[in-house]
Specification:
Chain lengths: 334, 475
């Protein structure tokens, strides 16, 4: 049996996007939570908890974008113009938070402004990513392989809800990360925030899950038609399991379990999107097979990716291992 | 139609603006990463605390620069899709995999080991820390390799076919990656990055020598930078000359624009040292020329014929003004660098390299020269490629996204405001870091003699004291 290269690549791109979402998700979440930690010392600890790893986390976004251009150029060339404004806002948000992070250590008087920049940049990046997902779910107007809609099509009540869902969800990831990495009062506050953002996240996942089948008939059949519903049902069941693990971990003061449970919520939501989308890569407009680049491109990059992605995962894991454990307040990284 | 043209112009301005800002940071971080690897290696080898101090000094500067390079680079990777989607769709199958390899082989490597290189010395020990520092440096070079392969392919495309939809289909990856201008462009750009760093380091060293000639760390960094200037500048001039010959072979119209030759010269072309291009009249006003020299440089023959822009169809001629001036700025800076490098050799021989105030002042003035030269070179080559995105095959006007001009205009304004705010602040903080003298702790101890207690030496500003205290925890 020949390998279906476009599907393999769709899987790799999906993996890169998921890796980005959960990894940069927690460090964006730390930024989103800044207003709840007004004390300078806490903010120093929070930024130090992500200082050694945020850069690697953000690289997955470049792999997602660059990979898309390489193996699904039509998708890259139609989705990005369709999401022009959210993408530009996301990039500017990422610019702000990426430097704010470094600059806040370089000044005493000005650090409050960079703290605001870090919070605002993180929040805007998260919200616009949610808008982008929502816009993709609701569909993009494509005629003759080119974007044919207006430049405000992405803004609807549905996309605002998905924007909020991703923002609060990232805050949950950030709170459970801080619960994992910190001690004392900072950790206690993170735990309370994780509980609150966990409840809201689950509520918003519910709203989006119930709303989206009514946007597109394909989604409806996938989730409620027979026999696919039988297989799709494992997603909500496992979501319930993760929700329980999150609640249980937080109430019994576990450190790693809530973070893993929050990651689980994201992974399952992402799988849910995949179930809705497949075999489309842009719902209703382009299938994975239609959008694929010539085989020579798929093979050329796959040769490297199949070796390099495991290597990347290995040394990224090592880098996390080096900086494992609770943040020592006396051992800052700046 | 007018609407479409303004969207194209705005998109071009936006791309030129964001890529110029971005390019400054890798041009500096490529050289700095290698410099850090050398300093850390010297520290491990000689166990001389001066090298450790210099490593820590430049490490902080590298961290700030690298952060700015990362965020401005992410913008670039998405701008191909937002503003140049037709180009992305048609050429994506060729250039996308090269950029994919850049991410897989370089970005992850740099990002994965950066944390350890910056903050991990105590946690992983000297050997693994050294490995991380070297890996980061190698990562920056691998990154340059792929991105220059992409860029070179856009100048000298080969190894593809074009399908019924007008899309580029890769046929021979070896030919695509190692396209004709790639080796020259790579060498020229990497040497430029090393020189940029050398002159920045040299200027910081010179500044501190002007304040205190006895500062050993300042002496070391000045000396290392001047060795680089003296050795690499001649190599760079040679590489630039070879790159020029390659451009003449594959992009002769660009050479004509750079040299300012509107007309063909069948019996030997003069070198136009200076003048003012007059695009309307298609000539160079107030030209100062040296007869036959252009033919001698480009073809090694005084009487060799050289094509001017009139030899090319009117709709395939690049604009002259920008490549003409940018090229002269780049070359002028190159020779100024050579002069400083040779001067430093002379000073070394005369044994006054650490006391020659004029040399230090010259090095200080030359501090930003590498950045200016790099940008000038970039403008020369990129504007010289116009009116094409893929040279000879795909026009810039055909590459644009179907995005409306107001959207491009609004985002351009947003980029300008945010970039000036953010990177302006970044440059401000960098200068503040440069201003700190690279002094060892034991030097500080010496300073704490009675004269300090008498209050003659004012301490650093209040807010710096606070932050310095915070930093030392991490060291």
């Amino acid at each position: 049996m020949a390998i279906d290269l476009p599907t393999v690549w769709a899987g790799i791109i999906a993996f890169a996007v998921l890796a980005y979402v959960v990894l940069d998700g927690f460090d964006l979440g730390v930024g989103i939570l800044f207003p709840f930690f007004p004390e300078r010392q806490n903010r120093d600890l929070m930024t130090n908890s992500i200082a050694p790893v945020w850069d690697g986390n953000e690289t997955w976004l470049v792999l997602g974008g660059g990979g898309l251009m390489a193996v699904f150029p039509v998708v890259y060339a139609t989705v990005l113009p369709a999401l022009y404004m959210p993408i530009i806002m996301m990039l500017l948000g990422l610019v702000f938070r990426g430097v704010a992070f470094e600059f806040r250590w370089r000044t005493a008087r000005g650090s409050i402004y960079w703290d605001v920049g870090f919070w605002l940049g993180s929040t805007i990046a998260a919200f616009t990513q949610g808008l982008a997902v929502g816009a993709l779910v609701q569909g993009i107007t494509i005629v003759d392989n080119a974007y044919a809609g207006g430049w405000w099509d992405w803004l609807t009540p549905f996309t605002i809800i998905t924007g909020l869902a991703v923002t609060i969800g990232y805050a949950l990831l950030g709170a459970t990360w801080l619960n994992l990495k910190t001690t004392g009062e900072l950790q206690a506050r993170s735990r309370r925030l994780a509980m609150a953002t966990g409840v809201i996240t689950l509520g918003l996942i519910g709203v989006v899950s119930l709303w989206s089948p009514f946007i597109n008939e394909n989604y409806f059949n996938r989730w409620f038609g027979w026999p696919t519903a039988f297989f799709s049902a494992f997603v909500p069941v496992m979501l319930a399991g993760c929700a329980f693990a999150l609640w249980h971990g937080l109430t019994t003061d576990k450190h790693l379990q809530p973070f893993l449970a929050a990651l689980g919520l994201f992974v399952l939501s992402f799988v849910g999107l995949g179930i809705s989308f497949y075999p489309y890569i842009v719902p209703g407009a382009l299938t994975i097979a239609e959008a694929a680049a010539p085989e020579s491109s798929l093979i050329f990059l796959l040769v490297g990716a199949s070796v390099l992605i495991p290597v990347i995962l290995a040394y990224t894991g090592y880098a996390y291992w080096v900086f494992r454990g609770k943040i020592d307040p006396d051992e800052g990284y700046h | 139609m007018d609407f479409g043209q303004s969207a194209e112009l705005l998109a071009r301005i936006q791309f030129a603006f964001t890529v110029s800002f971005h390019f400054i940071f890798p041009a500096f971080s490529i050289g700095t990463a290698s410099y850090l690897a050398v300093l850390n290696g010297l520290w491990l080898w000689k166990r001389d605390p001066a090298y450790l101090k210099l490593f820590e000094y430049w490490k902080t500067i590298f961290a700030v620069t690298f952060g700015m390079g990362v965020v401005s680079g992410i913008v670039m990777s998405y701008q191909f899709g937002t503003n140049w989607s037709v180009f992305s769709e048609r050429a994506g199958a060729v250039i996308g995999p090269l950029m994919g390899y850049e991410v897989l082989t370089a970005f992850f490597l740099e990002a994965g080991f950066l944390g350890i290189a910056l903050f991990g010395r105590k946690r992983v020990g000297d050997t693994l820390h050294m490995v991380a520092v070297v890996v980061v440096a190698v990562g920056t070079l691998i990154s340059a390799t792929w991105i220059l392969s992409v860029n070179s392919w856009m100048h000298t495309p080969q190894g593809f076919s074009i399908d019924a939809n007008g899309n580029f289909v890769p046929e021979d990856w070896w030919a695509i990656v190692f396209n004709p201008s790639f080796p020259y462009r790579l060498v020229h750009t990497v040497l430029a990055a090393f020189l940029t760093t050398a002159f920045a380091v040299g200027a910081v060293g010179a500044w501190h020598l002007l304040k205190d000639r006895t500062n050993r760390q300042a002496r070391i960094m000045f000396s290392m930078a001047m060795w680089m200037a003296a050795i690499v500048t001649p190599m760079q001039i040679l590489a630039g000359d070879m790159h020029g010959l390659n451009t003449l072979e594959y992009q002769p119209a660009k050479i004509a624009a750079m040299e300012g030759h509107y007309e063909s010269h069948p019996e030997g072309a003069p070198l136009i040292l200076f003048g003012i291009p007059n695009e309307d009249e298609q000539r160079i006003d107030y030209a100062i020329e040296i007869p036959k020299l252009s033919s001698l440089i480009l073809k090694h023959d005084l009487n060799a014929p050289l094509d001017g822009l009139d030899a090319f169809p009117e709709d395939a001629r690049p604009p002259v003004t920008i490549p003409f001036f940018a090229f002269r700025i780049m070359v002028g800076i190159g020779f100024a660098m050579l002069f400083v490098g040779l001067w430093s050799l002379w000073a070394r021989w005369r044994k006054n390299i650490y006391t020659n105030t004029w040399l230090h002042k010259a090095a200080l003035v030359m501090g930003p020269s590498g950045f200016v030269a790099v940008l000038a070179g970039w403008f020369t080559t990129e504007v010289g490629r116009q009116p094409f995105t893929v040279y000879g095959l795909m026009r810039t006007s055909e590459s644009l996204s179907p995005v409306e001009a107001p959207a491009v205009g609004a985002s351009l304004v947003a980029f300008v405001v945010v970039y000036f705010l953010v990177f302006g602040a970044g440059v401000f903080y960098l200068f503040r870091l440069f201003r700190r003298p690279p002094i060892l702790e034991e030097d500080h101890e010496l300073d704490k003699g009675p004269h300090r207690a008498a209050g003659i030496n004012p301490g650093p500003a209040q807010e710096d004291t606070i932050r310095e205290g915070a930093h030392h925890h991490g060291d």
